[in-house]
Design a protein that fits this description.
Largest sheet: 11 strands, mixed
Oligomer: single chain
Bound molecules: glutamine
Number of strands: 11
Order of helices and strands: HHHEHEHEHEHEEHEHEHHHHEHHEEH
Distance between the termini: 7 Å
Structural class: alpha/beta
Low-confidence stretches: 1-6, 497-502
Strand order of the largest sheet: 1-3-2-4-6-5-10-11-9-7-8
Number of helices: 16
Strand content: 5-15%
Shape: globular
Helix content: 25-40%
Radius of gyration: 21 Å
Length: 502
């Protein structure tokens, strides 16, 4: 059977790997099809940098390996997109910021290095909120990324929608079939929230599961890399290659990496799933309630036991996150001074050069975070804000630790709404921050959590369900997500006007 290029874009990683092994086509065919799709869809602005030459060279190497029977992993020859927060050797790495203008690292992040060692192919670097601060991909120096989904009815018809953020480009690229998978990073929701808005799967692993080395730091005690894919199985395949101990990151976990794909056996009989009462918001739209209810029913049908639980400190998670994350950011971003790399705006003297460079190099949201962070860490306010927020963080972790005695995992919606129009919530940072109300608690406690596409709302936009588990239970979290994926039968895609050939 002759396979068309469009068909190549519509495969999962698992299917592509099988077809490559069967010789249906080469990694170069697969890569070329994706590079062409990227060129056609530049209007989405999902990539900051495209790497066609590097991609085709990597694909050729992969094809050579396969022809000699030396396939390295299920990712060998698979074209992927990398969030522009990961440093990539010899390739512009910007964090979506002007201050890293022209920054071409001389080293490779451990996670992306692991993917290349597994034989994967780098298509390009994806757009993102500046320094991963945002929930709509509207703070990027490189402009908005656009969600490939469009509303089919209601007030949003005809409007460009946000892809979510901060890993907006990574989620949009996978949803639009421009990459078979991508990497994201999640500090408070940046893998899960854009995955929910774009109708794809996004997994934030346990803090420490993947190395942070070579990932441009936002809030170091929260940042974690993870995969964004079109199926739970693909998330399992990618995580297996991304994860692992790294002596270069003292917070990376020295634990073996299990075969995540083998844990997807569909058997959740007897698992206890907690439904936290604090996640039922008064203002929650019916469609979010409904998808959550459907999720509960699917899990019960599959043999799980669903129980009510309480996480009493949930309401303090977002306020304390917005102290801790800016505090760490203000410290991490102190290094951008215009002297060694990135943008430099010459001033009268050294101090003036620092000031002019930072004033020109950082956008408004980043400046806001630096100011908040500096304030909460300052001598007179440290105890009242930063120390207090750390204590709240411990309470949030304790809440989770006590519910793990009653349940094996927790089910919640991923976000309190579907994607919104570009330009909305821009004047009101708090409204923007509320996007992460369901994702931030797991980040504060360092827990693994996944978003799975579960439904299409009345306006034709995707909604995600969110599964949280105890630390290092990615296998269980993935297994539950896989059951939800099977039950949800989510087959919609944003390119429905394209006829799939083959
Ligand atoms: N939206 C949240 C923020 O702006 C989370 C971002 C992230 O996870 N990187 O901080």
């Amino acid at each position: 059977m002759m396979t068309s290029k469009i068909n190549l874009q519509y495969l999962t990683i698992k299917e592509a790997n099988r077809a490559l092994n069967e010789g249906d086509y080469t990694s170069q065919d697969l890569t070329q099809a994706h590079l062409e799709a990227m060129a056609t869809e530049r209007g989405l602005n999902s990539f900051v940098t495209e790497c066609p030459d590097r991609a085709l060279a990597m694909a050729e190497e992969s094809d050579k390996r396969r022809s000699k029977g030396e396939q390295i992993s299920p990712l060998d020859g698979i074209p992927l997109a990398i969030k522009d927060l990961f440093c990539t050797e010899g390739i512009l790495s910007t964090a979506g910021s002007r201050i890293l203008d022209g920054f071409t690292p001389t080293y490779e992040s451990t996670v992306s290095h692991n993917l290349w060692s597994a034989g994967a192919v780098l298509l390009g670097k994806t757009n993102m909120d500046e320094f991963a601060m945002g929930s709509a991909n509207v703070t990027s120096y490189y402009g908005n990324c656009i969600n490939p989904w469009k509303a089919s009815s209601g007030n949003l018809v005809g409007k460009d929608l946000v892809p979510g953020g901060s890993s907006g480009g990574s989620a949009a690229a996978v949803a639009a079939r421009l990459a078979l998978g991508s990497t994201g990073t999640d500090t408070g929701g940046s893998i899960r929230q854009p995955s929910s808005f774009c109708g794809v799967v996004g997994l934030k692993p346990t803090y420490g599961r993947c190395s942070r080395w070579g990932i441009i730091a936002f809030a170091s005690s929260l940042d974690q890399a993870g995969p964004i894919t079109r199926s739970v199985g693909d998330a399992a395949l990618m995580l297996a290659e991304m994860a692992g101990f790294d002596p270069k990151d003292s917070t990376s976990a020295n634990l073996p990496v299990p075969s995540y794909i083998e844990s997807l056996n569909g058997n959740i009989k007897g698992l206890r799933i907690g439904i936290p009462s604090e996640y039922k918001l008064d203002s929650m739209p019916d469609e979010i309630e409904d998808v959550w209810q459907r999720g509960r029913d699917w899990l019960i049908d599959a043999g799980a036991e669903v129980i009510d639980i309480s996480l009493p400190h949930t309401k303090y998670a977002l306020p304390s996150y917005y102290i801790i994350a800016p505090a760490e950011a203000s410290s991490n971003l102190a290094r951008y001074d215009g002297i060694r790399y990135g943008l430099r705006v010459e001033g009268e003297d050294l101090i003036d050069t620092y000031e002019k460079t930072r004033a020109a190099g950082f956008g408004d949201e980043v400046k806001r975070r630096i100011m908040i962070g500096t304030y909460v860490l300052s001598a007179g306010y440290y105890d009242a804000y930063y120390l207090q927020a750390q204590k709240v963080r411990t309470q949030i972790t304790n809440d989770f630790n006590s519910v793990w005695k009653e349940c094996d995992a927790i089910l919640t919606p991923t976000t309190p709404s579907a994607a919104f129009a570009i330009g909305e919530k821009m004047e009101d940072p708090i409204a923007m921050y509320l996007n992460d109300i369901f994702t931030v608690p797991a980040s504060m406690a360092g827990l693994p959590a996944i978003s799975v596409p579960a439904a299409i709302n009345k306006e034709g936009l995707p909604l995600g369900l969110h599964v949280i588990g105890p630390a290092f239970t990615e296998q269980t979290v993935l297994r539950i997500a896989d059951v939800i994926e099977t039950a949800a039968e989510f087959t919609a895609n944003p390119n429905e006007n394209i006829t799939i050939a083959g």
